[in-house]
Write a structure and sequence with these properties.
single chain, 609 residues, Four Helix Bundle (Hemerythrin (Met), subunit A), nine-stranded mixed sheet, 56% helix, rod-shaped
């Protein structure tokens, strides 16, 4: 079972190293899930003396007022032989064999965190002591509860200390070691009062009674120690600390333990309780109980760790990879993000994602409807046909057929198709732009980098603008080509006057009658409809070729070309991730490292048994 305590010690140290002190609600905490023993007591309750008696060394700072201003995680490691030494987690390569130096380092490290203003901090100090005179045990020494602030401390410190102590002992995995002096009324004990608030049934509270030897003559603590005055789930334990005179004389702690044993064994009041009194018994009993609690918590701890690892990995995946540090890494990262966006954009066009079908709707509905709204028959009204035919003839009326008039009628009618053709180009352009913005919003990596998102969006839209101009030019050329060269075969197949029973010898001016002009208008309308049907098929081909195909093929080509010319500083500016996201990823990464390490450590212990 000693391995279990060592396991929790190791995880606690990792928690502190990676910033898990059980306070940050924005991150999952492993610290609070670990069983621990918190030492609680008021000032001058003898709390420090109890801890030093368990350790067998004089190592804690002493003085007036609030001496302990940071939690001290005290990890005791029993060794078979060798010289006693101590190690601080913040000084990993330094061994302390002089415990007076340990005392000084605790005070100095406290000042480094809190300054010399007598403030308190919840960031713990980790101290490991290796000795053949200790049991395997971990204790958390908390600042002593006080009722008044001393000079140099804010008035709020009384509540600040109480809140810190409560934040530790209210956790269901915390074992409370409540230190109370026997020479004061137990009803006024700060430790018992706050312990009762969080553990009213006393199921995880151990009561320790100090200064039994300093009680007034004629009084004793037998009723308390026998659980008659205040009952707890576990038996009360009495201890006899060194006196102030002993402390001043630096009386050996081993000798003090021996005198403590002799006191209880020889006392007429406490002789029948001597076997379960004293600091040695307290240490052994706490070690055994902590082992049992850890063993019972292991399955739940494993389940919590597995669940939290999955949650952390999911969030880290959502936040994306951290930014590369070198220019090549940054360039590669930007290219990969752009390729992800480009792939999503293509999936929209190809139908894997929604949106590409809107382009077909332009060709199948919008373009035909726009062509239909042109109403060629109204453009080829009798008056307009007569006007254009006579104007085309000029001073010399046509001899056989009004060819120039035909051309003017056809050209003036076909030119109206430019409008729907241009509108089709613009409609597809709008759809492509919408798909670009949609694809950008669906590219998770781009959400990390606002500047890159803006740059990619602008580059894609610029490319689409250039493609639109090329498409418009090519599409309008299709319309213009129909005007520039007429299909002769169509007119050769038209019936002639003689074949219709007409008389070709009629006066040339008879050819301006309504019947004649109506037939010209009908012929032109037939030709225009034929051309319109052809353009209805060719305009979509031109638009797809110049816009859709090019967008799939080279949407970000220009952006990539410019990207290769950028310096490291410019590349860094594109990857300007939100500092809050960067900090969150770093914190999550550390927390994930902690949980994975804890999982491996627990598995090694449980599988090894």
């Amino acid at each position: 079972m000693e391995t279990l305590i060592s396991l929790v010690n190791k995880i606690q140290r990792a928690c502190t190293a990676l910033g898990d002190h059980g306070e940050d609600n924005a991150l999952p905490t492993l610290w609070e899930a670990l069983p621990s023993i918190a030492v609680v007591g008021g000032q001058s309750s003898g709390k420090s003396s109890v801890l030093e008696s368990i350790v067998g060394k004089d190592f804690l700072p002493r003085g007036a007022g609030i001496v302990t201003r940071r939690p001290l995680v005290l990890q005791l490691h029993k060794i078979d032989e060798g010289k006693e030494y101590a190690e601080f987690m913040h000084l990993p390569r330094k061994k302390f064999t002089d415990f007076a130096a340990v005392r000084k380092e605790i005070a100095d490290e406290t000042d480094r965190e809190t300054g010399r203003s007598k403030q308190i901090s919840s960031v713990p100090i980790h101290l490991s002591i290796f000795s053949p005179n200790v049991v395997n045990l971990t204790l958390v020494d908390l600042p002593g509860l006080t009722k008044v602030a001393i000079d140099g401390q804010p008035e709020s410190i009384v509540h600040d200390i109480e809140n810190m102590v409560r934040s530790y002992i209210e956790k269901p995995n915390c074992i409370i070691l409540a230190i109370s002096p026997a020479n004061q009324d137990l009803a006024t004990s700060d430790a018992i009062k706050i312990s009762r608030e969080v553990d009213p049934r006393g199921e995880r509270t151990f009561g320790v009674l100090t200064k039994i030897d300093l009680m007034d003559k004629g009084t004793d603590a037998v009723d308390i120690l026998e659980g008659k005055s205040y009952k707890l789930q576990f038996p009360w334990i009495g201890v006899v600390n060194r006196s102030q005179a002993d402390i001043n004389k630096s009386v050996d702690m081993i000798a003090a333990r021996r005198r403590e044993r002799e006191y209880f064994q020889s006392s007429p009041e406490y002789g029948h309780l001597a076997s379960r009194m004293g600091s040695e018994h307290l240490g052994k009993m706490l070690s055994k109980h902590l082992e049992q609690v850890i063993k019972s918590r292991i399955p739940g701890l494993q389940s919590l760790i597995s669940k939290t690892i999955n949650e952390l990995e999911t969030e880290l995946s959502r936040l994306g990879r951290p930014v590369a540090t070198d220019a090549g890494g940054k360039l590669y990262m930007i290219m990969e993000i752009c390729r992800s966006f480009d792939q999503i954009f293509k999936e929209h066009l190809d139908g894997t994602r929604s949106g590409g079908d809107k382009i077909y709707n332009v060709f199948d509905n919008q373009l035909p409807a726009a062509l239909k709204r042109l109403q060629f028959d109204k453009h080829l009204s009798m008056d307009n046909v007569r006007k254009l035919i006579t104007e085309a003839d000029g001073y010399q009326p046509h001899l056989i057929a009004p060819e120039q008039g035909y051309r003017r009628l056809i050209e003036s009618t076909l030119v109206t198709i430019r409008g729907p053709a241009e509108a089709a180009v613009d409609a597809v352009h709008v759809i492509l732009k919408d798909l670009v913005h949609k694809s950008i919003s669906e590219t998770m990596e781009l959400k990390q980098y606002p500047t890159l998102r803006v740059e990619v969006s602008a580059a894609a839209v610029d490319s689409l603008d250039r493609m639109r101009e090329e498409s418009k030019k090519a599409t309008l050329q299709l319309v213009d080509m129909e005007s520039s060269y007429l299909t002769v075969e169509f007119f050769r197949k038209l019936p002639q006057d003689a074949e219709k029973g007409g008389n070709p010898t009629h006066s040339i001016f008879d050819r301006y009658n309504d019947s004649y002009l109506r037939r010209i208008g009908s012929n032109v309308l037939a030709y225009v409809n034929m051309v319109c049907a052809s353009l209805r098929n060719s305009i979509p081909k031109s638009v797809v070729y110049c816009q859709v195909r090019e967008a799939k093929r080279s949407l970000l080509d220009f952006f990539f070309a410019e990207l290769g010319k950028k310096e490291t500083r410019q590349l860094s500016s594109l990857l300007d991730e939100d500092p809050a996201v960067m900090q969150r990823r770093t914190l999550l990464g550390k927390r994930l490292e902690l949980y994975r390490s804890a999982q491996a450590d627990i598995d090694a212990v449980t599988w090894g048994k």
